[in-house]
Design goal:
Length: about 200
């Protein structure tokens, strides 16, 4: 009887722990997804190739659609044909499409949002479980990037990670010591990544 009571308490405790973990990871994922969505739809977001845009024209459902920014930086839109989108903010593209539709639609009201952001990416190479090229979500840090790549592989030198960034024709190198970062001793090393950063795990 005593053993049965202990078993029940053990199972109850395990269930509580599992529930806490589910809630923790669920909320974390939700917050990260929300941050990525808000960042991509920021009016200052710079559009690039491979991004997927949603363009809506009020009261003109035949024109509203999702479009892919092609490798040449252009999109194709009804009536106005090819439009240069790469390098523009969502607000600038909205104004450009609005101006071009003036001759076809009375007082067009256009909205442009980013459905999928694929033009911003980073590289991670070396001793991680899944090296490769990954989409860079807004606000992504080095720790998050390592997680996306499946974490460290066996024999990885966690104290010697390097982030290589090319800026203004020059390369900058940032050091990252995993153990010191997660212990709180060097949180400043967990920097925000920028497009085209390369993480090297020796």
């Amino acid at each position: 009887m005593k053993r049965g009571g202990e078993m029940k308490r053990h199972l109850k405790g395990t269930a509580i722990v599992c529930l806490v973990l589910i809630l923790f990871f669920g909320v974390g994922f939700s917050m990260q997804s929300k941050a990525a969505e808000e960042g991509a739809n920021d009016t200052s977001y710079i559009i690039g190739p491979r991004d997927v845009l949603e363009i809506q024209v009020w009261r003109e459902p035949d024109f509203s659609r999702e479009v892919l920014v092609r490798p040449d930086g252009k999109i194709t839109f009804p009536l106005i044909g090819d439009v240069d989108a790469s390098g523009l903010t969502t607000m600038a593209l909205k104004q450009l499409i609005t101006d071009k539709l003036q001759g076809y639609v009375d007082s067009p009201e256009v909205t442009v949002s980013v459905v999928q952001s694929h033009s911003k990416y980073f590289f991670i190479i070396g001793k991680v479980n899944a090296p490769g090229t990954y989409d860079l979500t807004p606000g992504m840090t080095v720790l998050q990037a390592l997680s996306v790549a499946g974490g460290f592989a066996q024999w990885a030198h966690k104290d010697s990670v390097r982030i290589i960034r090319r800026s203004g024709g020059e390369e900058k190198i940032f050091n990252f010591d995993y153990d010191k970062v997660i212990s709180g001793k060097q949180l400043n090393q967990n920097i925000l990544l920028e497009p085209h950063d390369t993480i090297v795990v020796p």
